[in-house]
Design a protein that fits this description.
three-stranded mixed β-sheet; four-stranded mixed β-sheet
Length: 333
Amino acid sequence: MASQDWFDKDFYAVLGVSKDASEADLKKTYRKLARQYHPDSNPGDAAAESKFKEISEAYSVLSDKEQRKEYDQVRAMGSGARFTSGGPGGQGGFEDVFGGMFGGGGGGQRVRFGQGGSGGAGGFEDILGGMFGGGGFGQNTGGFRGFGGPTKGRDVTATTTLDFATAIAGDTVKLAQGNGRPVNVRIPAGVADGQKIRLRGRGEQSPDGGEAGDLVVTVSVRKHPVFERDGQNLRVDVPVTFIEAALGATIQVPTLGGEPVKLRVAPGTPSGRVLRVKGRGVPGKNGTGDLLATVQVAVPSHLSDKARAALDALADALPDEDPREDLLARARG
């Protein structure tokens, strides 16, 4: 999947991570940036949308072990390189790129790339095959026309929009290709908004008998009216009455695609406390996340005379304390 973009774009810089960042660090950083720049969080902000696309592209390459390895190898050839035929005095041709790698200068000795025979050595395939760890450049990456074998077909891109529950559970969707033929795409469980799914060999055919390109599907996930995704966890706000929060209660909490579960609210539970339901979150490679229920104390908007009198009596019975006293003191420093 090497392309000119790989020379021009520093995906590590886009994500703000080091070149030796672990998979876990990449995932953590991507999730943070995706939440920050997602179009749903920045409606009408073209800059944020552009940034979101950049970080999604960077993560799609660096999160794939094989693509990341190939990207690092290609970038090692020299930033800003161009795979074009350089004329006299021109810059950026094959000879410029590899001449610099093997000791040549812009005006000095050039490296010549001959097309080796079946038993020959020193050809273009031999040089690049050694660099990329394969038996021939054409075999590994499709090569370039006239050098190292047939080219790989172009990739085809597509988009699909899924309901929130479908993205969490996974499904098979049918997409229409440019040629009118439908293609079934398996969406894995736990796919995230903006994530790309690559189908090897489902893109355009090679113009000279090489490997077919890939189909790259970008997934968009609709928002859910109740649940929100937080990494591998799901979040939901659960209202409770003042009496339930003060005296304690057992309440029902909804789950995604299942029956409600019962949770115990301890006496004196404040608004904002998080109750955890193990294993009812988003499935992933490292297991399934949790459901995080945030308690929200609901204040009645209408009180009868009897209820108001009861609250007045409660206020008289409670200690005369200011719950904001400590907050004000800390604000004053």
